[in-house]
Amino acid sequence: MSALDPLWARGRAFLGTETAIMGGAMSWVSERHLVSAISNAGGFGVIACGSMTPELLDAEIAATKALTTKPFGVNLITMHPQLLELIAVCVRHGVGHVVLAGGLPSAAAVRAVKEGGAKLVCFAPALVLAKRLIRSGADALVIEGSEAGGHIGPVSLAVLAQEILPVITEVPVFVAGGIGRGEAILAFLEMGAAGVQLGTRFAASAESIAHPNFKAAFLKANARDAIPSVQLDARFPVIPVRGLANAGTARFVEHQAETIRRFQAGELDKEQAQLSIEHFWAGALRRAVIEGDVEQGSVMAGQSVGMVTAIQPVAEIIAELIAQADAAFAARATVRQPDASIEAA
């Protein structure tokens, strides 16, 4: 038995798993092999649908079900033009949990998930939105801090947890962003979290299909190497994405500067300039994850990347996290125990 068992009992019950550890949905990474490995190890794997068509998602869910009989979920982007069809695919497969990310879900999407019999998980970047999502029908929330890899919000998990966990008690709340050790998991559970979500450590796991170059970049990196994308001009917004600094990130800054120069010279209108900036990274994540181009590709990683010190099997990562949490809990109990010699004196 782990000291975490009573602390994450609510999260385990909600997910139907042995541990309340969710896998972050990472495009090109969170596919059948990694998702099934996380679920088979007692966690909760989540397929990253990303830009998949309904046909591709159907095949990915079927392939994942062939590799595990344990619960897993599917992460869908709310802005996907075929969102309702993707939800229908999940419902047909009996997927128990649908995660809607990338913005506030529409009433139609919420209704489709709920009427299909799945539990709805949503991302809440602020307390006011957390309350709104619960009113809309969310069965659980994920609060993800800016320490996370990939697309990020502006607020750290340390602040979000203090803002949201003491207030939101109606539904389970899972925390994400920068979590790489069991001591942190214990601390957030003690604050009221129902469970945690990890991405970066699993991205570099043995079961991850990411290219060896991608994993090697994680092993070499420190926390300070995982930086958010830079925006040069407020007129041309850049959605912040956290990844490892490389030649591509330097070239992106140069591309923005050149695009802004061309706009100011009248060579591009504003829409053309914005599209030029937005399209810079098209296909860059696949180049890094699948092809191994970690210099020009987008090597998305959270600040916990500095805690990736080996390529480990998923089951070993989860066991290590739990052992760290249990050791921290035991150490706290020892500190709280009064010294008998002092009492005797």
Describe this entry's structure for a reader.
Its EC number is 1.13.12.16. GO terms for molecular function: dioxygenase activity; nitronate monooxygenase activity. It is an enzyme of class 1 (oxidoreductase). Keywords: Dioxygenase, Flavoprotein, FMN, Oxidoreductase. This protein is of the alpha/beta class. The protein folds into two domains: 212 residues, Alpha-Beta Barrel (TIM Barrel); 82 residues, no CATH class. The chain is 44% helix and 13% strand. Helix 3 packs parallel to helix 4 and helix 11 packs antiparallel against helix 12.
| First-residue to last-residue Cα separation | 37 Å
Largest sheet: 8 strands, parallel
Mean pLDDT: 95
Order of helices and strands: HEHEHEHEHEHEEHEHEHHEEHHHHH
Helix content: 40-55%
Give start-end ranges of low-pLDDT stretches. none
For the biggest β-sheet, the strand order reads 1-9-8-6-5-4-3-2
DSSP strand count: 11
Overall spatial form: globular
* Shape-level CATH architecture of the largest domain: Alpha-Beta Barrel
CATH class categorisation of the largest domain:
Alpha Beta
How many domains would you count in the coordinates? Answer: 2
Instruction: Write the CATH fold name of the largest domain.
Output: TIM Barrel
Query: Nearest-angstrom radius of gyration?
Result: 21 Å
SS-derived structural category: alpha/beta
User: What is the beta-strand fraction?
Assistant: 5-15%
Count of DSSP helices?
15
CATH superfamily of the largest domain: Aldolase class I
Indicate the topology:
Elements: H1 9-15, E1 21-23, H2 32-40, E2 45-48, H3 54-67, E3 72-77, H4 83-92, E4 97-101, H5 107-115, E5 119-123, H6 127-136, E6 140-144, E7 150-151, H7 157-164, E8 173-176, H8 182-191, E9 195-198, H9 200-203, H10 212-220, E10 226-228, E11 241-244, H11 247-264, H12 270-278, H13 284-289, H14 314-336, H15 340-344
Parallel strand pairs: 1-9, 2-3, 3-4, 4-5, 5-6, 6-8, 8-9
Antiparallel strand pairs: 7-11, 10-11
Helix pairs in contact: 2-3, 3-4, 4-5, 8-14, 11-12
